[in-house]
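Field log, afternoon session.

UNIT: design team B
ACTIVITY: writing a sequence onto a fixed backbone
BACKBONE:
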C-alpha cells in the first residue's frame, strides 16, 4: 500500500486509505471532519505544537532576551558594583598621605607647599632627606610667593629684595625674625603702657581700653621693626668704620654721629618722624624693666627680696647696640626681677670678659702609675683614626668606609651648606669684634635722639623742635582712632588686610 502522501488528494483511493487506518488515528480526524468539511493534513501537527509544550535540550544554546531587565541594572549587579567600589576605596584608604602626595606632579607639590605657613615649611625640611631636598631646590619659588603675599611694604623698603634667581629662604626667614621680634615687643610695651601710664589695672578697665590697646600695638610694630633695622645696620657700619680707620668714634670729634647719620638717611620723612617720637618710649620701657619694681628705699627692697640694684648705663647700651632688640626681648620675657637681673649680669659678663678655657683635668692613677699605650702599629685593619666631625676614635680599615664617608660628607654639606646656615639677624659677634666695639659705644642719651632731631630740622619735616610730639602727645597719637586707612596704605600697601601679622601666629610661632 502506498503511503497517504503519495495518493492524490480527495480521490477515491485517498478515502479508502483513510477507512483502513486504525481507530486511534481516525478519532481526531472524525472530530475535525464533523466540525468542518475542509481538512488540511498539516493542521494536526500545528494543533499538537500548540497543546504539547516543546522541550528544549539543556545543551541547546538559547539567545538572550533583550528586554528592560537586561538594560536596567538588577539588584545583584548593583550590589556587585558597590562591593567592587568598596574594595577599591579600601585600597585607596590603605595608602598613607606621603605615598599619595609622592605621586602628585612636582608643580602641584610645590604649589601646595608654598601655601603653607613658613613655620610649617621649615619643619618639613627636617622631616626627611627627600622633603629637605624638595624644599631646598625650590626655595626661590617659595620665598617669592611668601614675599608677595605675606610681607608688608615697610619691611621690603628697609630690606630690598634681591634678584629673583638669588631669592633664598634666608632672606625670607630674616624678615620674619625681625617682624616677630617687633610684634612681641609691641605687645610687651603696650601691656606696660596700659598698666603703668594709662592706669588700666582692673579687668573691666582693660576691656574698655581694648580698642585703644589694639591700635597702639598695631602702630608700634612697624616702628619697632625700623628700630631693629637701625641697631642692626649701626652695628655693621660701626665695625666697618673701625676696621677702615683703625679707631672708633671716641677718638674723633664730631657734632653729629656720622654712622647714625648714614643709617638715618635711609628712612623717609614720615618714618623718621614717627620713630623719633616713639624712640624715648621704647628705651625708657626697657630701662624700667631692668630696674627694681619699688623706689621706696633699700630697706623695703631688701624686705621684698629686690637685692640687686639697677644695671649701669653701659649694660643698657651694650644690650641695644650689640644684642639688638632680640636681646632686649629675651631680657623682658624673664619673670622675676632677681632672675632677670641675674640673666643680664651673666650676658654682659659673657660679652665683656674674655672666655677662659677650663684646664683639662689630669688622669689619676694608682701611685702615679698609668697605663701606657703601645707604640707598635698594628696592621691596617687595626689602625685607629680620629673622625674630624665627631672627634671620636675609629678603628678598622679605611677602604670600607670611603664610600659611606663620601656620601655622609656630601649630605652634611648639602644640609649645612644651605642659605639658612648663615644664621639669624644680629647674631653673636666674635671675640675680637667685641673687644673693638664695646669700648667705642656711645652714651645711652646720645643714641638716635640728637642725630635724628638735627636731620628732621634739616629736612624741614617740622618747623621747630617744639612741633615734635613727645611723651604724652606721642602716646595719644598711638591710640587715636582716625587715620588708620592712610597708615595701612603707607605701611602695608593696598592689601593691608592680608599682610597684617596675626596675633596667634606671633604668640605661637618660634622665631629661632
Amino acid at each position: 500500500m502506498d503511503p497517504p502522501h503519495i495518493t492524490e488528494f480527495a480521490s477515491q483511493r485517498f478515502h479508502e486509505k483513510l477507512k483502513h487506518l486504525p481507530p486511534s488515528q481516525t478519532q481526531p480526524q472524525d472530530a475535525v471532519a464533523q466540525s468542518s468539511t475542509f481538512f488540511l493534513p498539516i493542521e494536526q501537527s500545528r494543533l499538537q505544537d500548540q497543546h504539547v509544550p516543546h522541550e528544549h535540550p539543556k545543551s541547546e544554546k538559547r539567545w538572550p532576551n533583550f528586554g528592560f531587565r537586561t538594560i536596567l541594572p538588577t539588584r545583584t549587579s548593583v550590589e556587585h558594583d558597590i562591593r567592587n567600589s568598596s574594595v577599591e576605596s579600601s585600597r585607596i584608604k590603605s595608602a598613607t598621605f606621603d605615598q599619595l602626595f609622592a605621586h602628585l606632579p612636582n608643580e602641584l607639590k610645590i604649589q601646595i607647599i608654598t601655601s603653607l605657613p613658613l613655620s610649617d615649611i621649615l619643619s618639613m625640611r627636617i622631616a626627611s632627606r627627600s622633603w629637605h631636598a624638595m624644599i631646598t631646590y625650590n626655595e626661590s619659588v617659595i620665598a617669592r610667593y611668601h614675599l608677595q603675599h605675606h610681607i608688608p611694604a615697610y619691611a621690603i623698603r628697609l630690606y630690598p629684595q634681591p634678584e629673583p634667581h638669588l631669592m633664598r629662604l634666608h632672606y625670607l626667614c630674616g624678615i620674619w625674625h625681625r617682624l616677630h621680634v617687633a610684634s612681641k615687643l609691641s605687645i610687651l610695651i603696650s601691656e606696660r603702657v596700659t598698666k603703668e601710664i594709662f592706669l588700666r589695672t582692673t579687668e573691666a578697665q582693660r576691656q574698655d581700653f581694648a580698642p585703644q590697646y589694639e591700635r597702639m600695638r598695631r602702630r608700634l610694630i612697624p616702628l619697632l621693626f625700623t628700630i631693629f633695622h637701625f641697631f642692626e645696620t649701626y652695628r655693621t657700619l660701626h665695625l666697618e668704620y673701625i676696621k677702615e680707620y683703625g679707631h672708633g668714634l671716641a677718638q674723633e670729634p664730631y657734632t653729629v654721629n656720622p654712622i647714625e647719620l648714614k643709617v638715618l638717611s635711609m628712612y623717609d620723612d614720615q618714618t623718621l618722624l614717627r620713630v623719633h617720637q616713639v624712640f624715648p618710649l621704647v628705651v625708657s620701657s626697657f630701662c624700667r624693666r631692668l630696674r627694681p619694681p619699688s623706689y621706696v628705699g633699700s630697706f623695703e627692697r631688701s624686705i621684698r627680696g629686690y637685692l640687686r640694684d639697677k644695671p649701669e648705663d653701659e649694660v643698657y647700651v651694650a644690650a641695644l647696640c650689640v644684642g639688638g632688640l632680640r636681646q632686649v626681648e629675651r631680657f623682658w620675657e624673664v619673670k622675676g626681677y632677681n632672675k632677670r637681673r641675674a640673666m643680664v649680669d651673666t650676658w654682659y659678663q659673657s660679652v665683656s670678659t674674655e672666655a677662659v678655657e677650663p684646664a683639662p683635668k689630669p688622669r689619676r692613677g694608682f701611685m702615679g702609675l698609668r697605663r701606657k699605650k703601645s707604640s707598635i702599629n698594628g696592621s691596617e685593619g687595626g689602625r685607629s683614626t680620629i673622625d674630624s666631625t665627631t672627634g671620636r676614635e675609629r678603628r678598622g680599615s679605611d677602604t670600607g668606609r670611603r664610600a659611606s664617608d663620601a656620601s655622609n660628607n656630601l649630605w652634611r654639606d648639602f644640609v649645612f651648606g644651605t642659605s639658612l646656615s648663615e644664621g639669624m639677624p644680629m647674631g653673636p659677634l666674635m671675640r675680637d669684634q667685641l673687644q673693638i666695639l664695646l669700648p667705642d659705644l656711645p652714651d645711652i642719651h646720645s643714641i638716635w635722639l640728637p642725630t635724628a632731631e638735627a636731620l628732621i630740622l634739616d629736612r624741614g619735616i617740622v618747623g621747630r623742635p617744639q612741633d615734635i610730639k613727645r611723651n604724652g602727645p606721642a602716646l595719644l597719637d598711638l591710640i587715636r582712632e582716625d587715620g588708620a586707612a592712610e597708615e595701612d596704605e603707607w605701611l602695608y600697601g593696598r592689601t593691608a588686610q592680608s599682610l597684617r601679622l596675626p596675633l596667634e601666629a606671633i604668640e605661637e610661632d618660634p622665631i629661632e
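LOG NOTE: Strands lie at 384-386, 393-395.
NEXT ACTIVITY: expression trials, pending approval
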